[in-house]
Amino acid sequence: MMVVNQASLTPLVSRLGEVSSRHRASVHTAPVRRRVRSVQGRGRVLVPRAKAGGDPEDPNPGVGLKALWFASEQFGNLVGLSKALQGGDTGESQAGKSGVAKLSRSEALALLKDDYDQNYFVSGQGKMAAYADDCVFADPFVSFTGTQRFVNNVSNLGGLMEDVKLKITGWEEGDDSLNTSWTFSCILDLPWKPKLAAGGGTTHLFDTNTGLVTKHIEMWSVEPGKVAKSLLKPSAVYPTSKAEVIMMSVSEGDVQGIWFALSPYILKVSAPIVGISLLANSISGHGLLGDGVETTALALAIVCGSTEVWKLLSRIF
C-alpha cells in the first residue's frame, strides 16, 4: 500500500485551487457580445439604440434590397418631375433652411415635435428646421447625406400614400439625442394597392455646438426583406382588378395563377401578329416581322388560346 505524504500534496492542492479560481473568474468576466435586434414587445415597440458615436450597426440588407431602394428613389424622382410639370409642389422649399445657425435644445425639440405632428418623415410636409443641411440619414436599406435629398424622397413618394396612419409610441430625450418609437401603415397608390406597414424608432443626434440634428437613424422592428415583399401583395383580401389578381399570384408564388391572369393580355398581342403574318405570307410569300418573331407569336397564341378554352370549360363543368 502506497503512503502519500500530506505535506507533498499541499502545494499541488493550492495550485489547483488557483487555476480553478482563475477559470471561474474568466467565465464570469469574459465580455459577451450580443447583437441587439429590434423586436415587437407586448403592446409597445422596443427600439434598438444607435452604437456609441451615433452610427447604427450595418444591417447589410444585400445588393438586391439596396437596388430596390435606389430604384424607388428614382421612381420618386419621376413622380416629383411629373408634379413639377403639372405645377405642383416638389418639396424643394424650407427643409433644413431655417436660417438659424444655432438652436437651444428646447427650440430643437419643439421644432421636431411640430414635424412629427405633420408626419414629416412620411409626407415630407414638415419644415425640418432643426436639421443641419448635411445631416446623415440612415435606415435598414441605405444611408446618405443631405436633408434636402431626404425631403425630396419622402415628399415624392408621400404623394403615393393613402390612408396614412402614423402613431408615436415613445419619446425619450437624452443628453445629446432624442429617441422616438412609432408604428406606421399606408396604402400605396399603385394598380394593385399594396399595404406598407412597419414599426420601429428613430434616433436623432444633436450637434453639441449648433444644437441641430446631424444624424437621423431609423431602425425597424421588421426585416427589410419582409417589408419589400409586402409591396408585392395587394391590400385587398379578395382581388377586384386584374392587377391585383396578378400581384396576388406573384406574392404567393402561384405560377398557374400568374399565367391565367396574363394569358388574355398575351393573346391580345400575339393573335394580331399571327393574323398579320398570315395575311402578308398569303400576299407576298413571306412574313413581315421575321421568322423568329412570328413563330414565337404563333406559339404564344396557341398556348394562350388553349388556356382560355380551358378556363371557359372549367367554368362550365
Describe what you observe in this structure.
The protein has 317 residues and is an alpha+beta fold. The chain has 9 helices and 8 strands. The strands form 2 sheets. A 6-stranded mixed β-sheet has the order 4-3-8-7-6-5. A hairpin with a 6-residue loop joins strand 6 (177-188) and strand 7. Helix 8 (255-284) packs across helix 9. The relative contact order is 0.09. Residues 1-13, 19-58 and 90-94 have low confidence and may be disordered.
Features:
317 residues, alpha+beta, 9 helices, 8 strands, elongated
Task: Provide a short characterization of the protein structure.
With 317 residues, the chain is of the alpha+beta class.
Low-confidence stretches: 1-13, 19-58, 90-94
Radius of gyration: 31 Å
Secondary structure category? alpha+beta
Pattern of helices and strands = HEEHHHEEHEEEEHHHH
Q: Mean pLDDT score, rounded?
A: 76
- Main sheet strand line-up: 4-3-8-7-6-5
Count every helix, treating DSSP H or I runs of 4 or more residues as helices: 9
Can you count the beta strands?
Answer: 8
SSE diagram, text form:
Blueprint: H1 6-29, E1 39-40, E2 45-46, H2 63-85, H3 105-117, H4 120-123, E3 131-138, E4 143-145, H5 147-158, E5 161-173, E6 177-188, E7 195-206, E8 213-220, H6 224-230, H7 242-252, H8 255-284, H9 291-316
Parallel strand pairs: 3-8
Antiparallel strand pairs: 1-2, 3-4, 5-6, 6-7, 7-8
Helix pairs in contact: 2-5, 7-8, 8-9
